V-type proton ATPase subunit a
Amino acid sequence: MELLKNLPEMDLMRSEKMTFVQLIIPVESAHRAVSYLGELGLLQFRDLNNDKSPFQRTFVNQVKRCAEMSRKLRFLKDQLHKAGLLSSALPAVQSDIDLEALEIQLAEHEHEFIEMNANSEKLQQTYNELLEFKMVLQKARSFLISGKSYETAEGRELEENVYPSDYPETASLMEQATQSGQSNSTGLRFISGIIPKSKALLFERMLFRATRGNLFFNQAPADELIMDHLSSELVEKTVFVVFFSGEQAKTKILKICEAYGANCYPVPEDLTKQAQITQEVLSRLSELETTLDVGIRHRNAALHSIGFQLTIWMNMVKKEKAVFDTLNMLNFDVTKKCLVGEGWCPIFAKPQIQEALQRATFDSSSQIGIIFHVMDTVEPPPTYFRTNKFTNAYQEIVDAYGVAKYQEANPAVYTVITFPFLFAVMFGDWGHGICLLLGALVLIAREGKLSSQKLGSFMEILFGGRYILLMMSLFSIYCGLIYNEFFSVPYHIFGESAYKCRDDSCSDAYTVGLIKSRDAYPFGVDPSWRGSRSELPFLNSLKMKMSILFGVAQMNLGIILSYFNSIFFKNSLDIRYQFVPQVIFLNSLFGYLSLLIIIKWCTGSQADLYHVMIYMFLSPLDDLGENELFWGQRPLQILLLLSALVAVPWMLFPKPFILRKRHAERFQGRAYGILRSSETDIDSEPGSARKHDEEFNFSEVFVHQMIHSIEFVLGSVSNTASYLRLWALSLAHSELSTVFYEKVLLLAWGYENFLIRMVGLAVFAFATAFILLMMETLSAFLHALRLHWVEFQNKFYGGDGYKFQPFSFAAMADDED
């Protein structure tokens, strides 16, 4: 025991020792001190203003200013993205800029770009209108020329042949136009404009209904795509000319144009005027193109100069906001000249924190130093493990189940080896393992590049677990060599087989059977078992027994870790009434089964272990007969059975009664103390008997112990059976691989046709990649995860702690609030 106590501590075995500290910081050095602590990232502040809303805190105005600057920076970033430019921080000389100067600078930049955008929008809108006007002029000219000729010819024909001279005054527009021609007093008018192509059909129908058919509607598609000022997208548009008569019809048509978003432009009938206006429009378009081009270049130059500093500014504002948010967690002392803060830090970080605080006092030219001292507290400390890029992924697996209690034994130490090993037991194939290894090596080789990129959700998970994938692939190669499977094909890697045919001419040795001719195969499964009639029974027996051995070993490891937890927390009660009976119960049944398996392997006995274990409970006094593996087996079984039966009440009854006795002795004689002035004094006293009497509830403790005992007894059976998934998944993986190899690849290779062979090879590669390397990998990973979370960790791991989350600039999220 003394030897165990003198062993050096393992860094990852237990969380870092934490201490609760108090800081008394003068106001003039508070900002710099918190900023330096953020760069250090080893102090977790406690919020001393929980009862206050965010708007009641001291530095709320500074937080609002930082939030406003963040908004302006996001605006500038959006402008960069719209312009197709990328922001990048230059490592060149960067002059220090203070927050007030940055605030003024950002306000000027925002105002400048808002004005630029407004002017650009106005110019762009004018340019779009002139472009539309040009289209209308080009298309309307042909409409007007064809309309006049059509009107003259058609009118003459109708006048001569159709309409009598005494036709009533309410004749249709067509008749009025053809009868009167251009000299008619009513006059034939027209409206020209442009409308999005998607609305043209509905627009035409609405005009027809509104005017009851008294119009001519001509349309033609525009030659160019035009920017829509509402959606800011290039859209197809249609030029239209509507011929009508009467002021009322004009009013209706204009209203419909406005409702459908059609832009109307005046087109003179005189061809000379049309040519003059067209020339003027083209000239103004050329000027606007030049102006817009100059404006875009000027805007891009301004954005380019900002882009070099935008990342620096965003990080600066983000840090400043985090500093003020942290300062809002601190309280003023009674003099209102100092800020008081409390928090947790690792003991090893105390010298670094004190050095940072001294540097902050010196840099802020404060006359008063910052007071940093350790305090006592009843709160449980946070849990902090120092991990690296290799161990971090395993720690995340454990933390996903629950964060370890302070100084509790950390399962991640053992998970580094046991997790990839149990995965490999289910995934054992050294061909598939090599494929996983290549993928892991690619991720590790490109680690620097991928860590700086924004990855998708799946790729991010895969990259985060690259070292888990590496270990899983290495263990898969190892287990695959033991199983002697390379894409389900066995190889004579470690020498000749121990078996041979019954005679030299036997061609069906795999079906008739083999005979042993030399010593056992030196490493792993003999390749001659493959294809023999006893292959499946042999592998089933091997993998099933192996799964039980691994399961019992890992569960015993969990119980042993509970012992070390009890030693560390000085809880002798748990050792005597929890650890000891649990070890006795588990090993009296399943430890004994593991012993029988090993003895049977070593002796080559034909004993039926199912029969031995069943009749150990049903008929413990009966003679074992052929199933006896060693001398004294029957009395040993009786002793183990009695030990298992005794272990159950040993776990259940003593601990609650001893706790009640200790509680009564601890507070004996304290129930009648000195008479207090009020009842509240007794209740509020930390060590009062009344408070502790209320906290200790015997029935609750007894029920909890009963649940824990029942859970362990039943869990010993179910957890051992749960480890049989190692056998089931290993067998399934092997059989699936065999099916794809024999029924796809070999079947296709039996044909002489090259195309059939290539198709078979493609199907085999697809099945291997997507089913065996992806689905089977995920399945084995999830089952290994379950074995660690449920079967292993529930033996010793509480997982009811909380993470150490220090104030750290490095740990801040990339996205802004």
